Each structure stands twice: as structure tokens, then as C-alpha cells.
Amino acid sequence: MAQGILDAFxxxxxxxxxxxxxxxxxxxxxxxxxxxxxxVDQPVKKEGLLAxxxxxxxxxxxxxxxxxxxxxxxxxxxxxxxxxTPSPSQVNxxxxxxxxxxxxxxxxxxxxxxxxxxxxxxxxxxQNIAFEAETPYGSLEITINLSKPEKDPKDIAAAKLVKAxxxxxxxxxxxxxxxxxxxxxxxxxxxxxxxxxxxxxxxxFQYSPYAYFNEHCIFLDxxxxxxxxxxxxxxxLLTIVETFPGYFAGSNADLPIVGGSILSxxxxxxxxxxxxMELASVEDSLSIEGFExxxxxxxxxxxxxxxxxxxxxxxxxxLADHILKTWRGYSDPAVQxxxxxxxxxHHTITPIARIRDGHYELDLVLRDNQTSPEHPDGxxxxxxxxxxxxxxxxGLIEVMGLAILPPRLKKExxxxxxxxxxxxxxxxxxxxxxxxxxxxxHPSITEEAEAEAIVRESVGQIFARVLExxxxxxxxxxxxxxxxxxxxxx
Length: 490
Hints:
This protein is an alpha+beta fold. The protein contains 16 helices and 15 strands. About 40% of the residues lie in helices and about 15% in strands.
């Protein structure tokens, strides 16, 4: 006789957790307390742990055990997956025991757990649209992000009635580990953090639930302290790439406009992915007096990037700090580069660390967050004529050549394709000029695949323009001469 939903789920839990067959009745009773008793013997619609979890959530909804909000369903889903997730102490013990024998195996095991227990939303991430586009800077990566669910109107309405809470202080705090979640804060019952020491201070290592690239992870301070780029940043990034082999580590900038989405909690991002910027060549090599052990180069990239490489870790960190401090105080009004205005600092750096062929490497991307009447969103921010594709901040991931584009573009790009094919379409107003230009350039398209290829290639070119807008020193003779004036001050 086939198992019902509850028995099938318990069988899966026992198969992948520390629970044994002796625990079956206990598990059934505990899970029934969450989803209700009606319908637990219904036949299974779809096999597999995650599919069974979703069926149990549907059952809880039908039994009135949870409210009909997405937040309530996510909360129950995370609680159900917590049954297959070892406690934080067990996860950490296993990680560091394995690490002693094989760093790679320790990382692989934690990654596998984070996928298996649905903390990493593998099925949701698979919905993303991803493609590459050739540009003068190499092949850029484009992702239309469909994985992170948009807020449910029911959740928004209900959240207004809930008393505000400041616990956890943000979505990166250690206090998220095991947190049940609420209408305005995601469920984290199945969340685990690996603890590690960095210069005598507690840090955490976790994966990103809605990963933008392979093994997308986050390294976070145990304390809720603001992000800050300093000499410590370079030290920590290099420590991370030593501790977690095969991973890069980078930081968003620490100023508004050019910074990341969470500036209130110090953290870095990493993962196992080769970004387009890493593949970009050095077009001008130079040496800086007093730092002869470090090779320095200007990278052939739309943003302004200095690449430092050395076997001397201490001198590499010292030079990165020297560049940061010099840039923070550097102005060149002839090319609209200002260190400060009205007492507000404008200059910082987006740093990326990796170990390449056994050598330490730092890419330092110069950032400037000035605004002007002509560019109120930011002088070095996507300008108005490309905001129909990308309006959001250009953070660490985009800097490296991976566009994270909003979900609206799935429908909107299809409408532009239909327009090129002279099919019935409703092109968004902000795409009209772009669509007309594409039509004028490609007047006789008849194949859907060709229309899609043309639109995608154009999106890639626009993303390259977005990065050029964000670049402090433009890819012109004047801009590159100004870049070298800054380098000369080092």
C-alpha cells in the first residue's frame, strides 16, 4: 500500500537526518501538530522531500493551521525542513572536523546541506533567465532575477497591522539562525551559520538563499556594525580566500548610491564563480615606489579597476590601504572627480580578492557617489537613458560583470521581441525609443529566435553602457589620461 503524504515525508526525513525508524511515530505526531490531522493519509502527488514539504504546507492551509499569507507558508516550510537540519552546534562540529582532513569536503558538505534543507531555494533559482552577451569587454553575464518572490499584497496589508519589531536587527544578524520569521522578516528555522575566527573576532559563513551565481555565500560579522572599507577589509578578504579555497571574496562599497543594499551590517560576499572581470586583461602594467613586491595593472574594463598581485601578503595589504586612503582624498575637477562636497565624502573602493595560480590578487574598483542636477541618481550611476533596463545600484556583483536585472523584464523583453516581429504587443513607454531603434536597425525579422537573440544582445550592450556610466574614469583618451594622473599620485 502506497504511503500517504505524512508517512512519505517522515520516510524522507529519516533517510537524510539523524532520526531513525524508532522515531517515526514521534515525528508523525510532531508534524501533525503543525499541519493538522485531516488529510495526512492522502496519496502523494509528487515524490521528493521538497515536493512533499509543499504538499504538507497545502494541507496545513486547508486545515486552517496557518494563514493564507506567503510569509506563513514560508515559515511552516522552513520549520518542516528544520527536521532534517542538524543543530547549529552539530553543523559546526561536522564542518570543522571535516575541515581538518579536507577543506573542500567541509565546504561541499555544508553547501549540500543548505540545498537539501531548502535554505538555498534551488527550484526558485532555476526559474531565473540567464544568458551571455558579447561586448567590447568580453562576454558579460545577464540574469533576469525571477527567484525571489515579489511581496504578496496580503502580506503587505497584514504587516501594517503587526507591531514593529527590531529583532533580529537585520537579515544578516546571527540572531536569524532558527528564527521563525514574521510578515516583515523571512523565515529562518532551517538556517545555519558556520562560525570562524578572524583576527580574534567571531565571523559567520552562510549561503545566500537566492543565489546569483555558483555557491553564492556571505561572510558576516557576528556584531551588527555598519559596513566600512578599510585596511581591515583587505586583510579579511585575503584571510577568507585562504580559509575557503576556490572561493573569491569581495565587498560592496560603503557609501550610498555606490554601496550595497545592506550597509548597516558589515559583510562580504563570495562563491565559486569566474566573473567576466576576472577574465579581463591588464592593459597597462606599472610599479609603485615602495611596493615593488606588488605588480599593479590597469584592467581593460568599463569601470576603473586597479589589479594588484603579489606573494607578499603584508605589502599587498599595505598598498591597497595606500590606494584607498589616497583615493579618499583625491580630486580632479577637470573630469568631475571630487573627494568631498558640502562635507560629504564621495570616494571609496569596491574590493575583490582571490588566489590566482597560487598568488594573492586584489581588484580595487574606484567608486564615486556624487550627484548633480543632470544626474540626480548619481553621476557614476546608470544614466536615465539606460534605466529602462537597469536603474538599481551597481553593487559588487554587477561591478564584476554579472547583471542582476528586475523580474519585470521577462515580460517586457518579450513585448519588444513581438514588436520586432510585427506581432501584437504593448511595449512599455520607457522601452519605446529602444524598440524603435532596434526595429530600424533590423527591419525584416521573421524568426522568434532571431528576435530574441537581437534583444538579448542589445541588453548586453546596454549593461556594458551601465558599467561605463558607473566607471569614474571614462574609456576615452581624456578619461584614461586622468586615471593615470591619479595613479601617478600613488
